[in-house]
Amino acid sequence: MHNSSQNGPVDSLLIDLRTGTDLVTDVTRDVLDFCRGRGDGLCQLFVPHATAGLALIETGSGTEPDLADAVDRLLPRQDVYRHRHGSLGHGRDHVLPAFIAPSLTLPVLGGSPALGTWQSVVVVDSNVDNRDRKLRLSFLAG
To answer: What topology is assigned to 10-141 in CATH?
Structure first.
């Protein structure tokens, strides 16, 4: 589902995602499509969830499993958290957004996000208890 709204100078789109199978879900194509034809401005991305974040990484080169390994080292999926409902180690899912922020802002030039050559936009979500997610894309014209 896509839910679009135009409120003053900000145009916004809400996208449904399915995450949790893998730690990383690539949303670069969604961002490119959203920005296409909009000229110059800022694209703001936000995942309105307590267990998800957004990052810029190189995908397809081994970075995804490297990131998963780093998250496992930093935030082990064990029963060591005070937040204890859900699956084993679900407390770590709620700590993750403190390290991988749930929002991201990208400059847009000529209708294209000014991403580096190897940068992809990804949602990072380790929560296997709830895989239905939303991504809000907002554009502010320059």
So the answer is: Jelly Rolls (2.60.120)
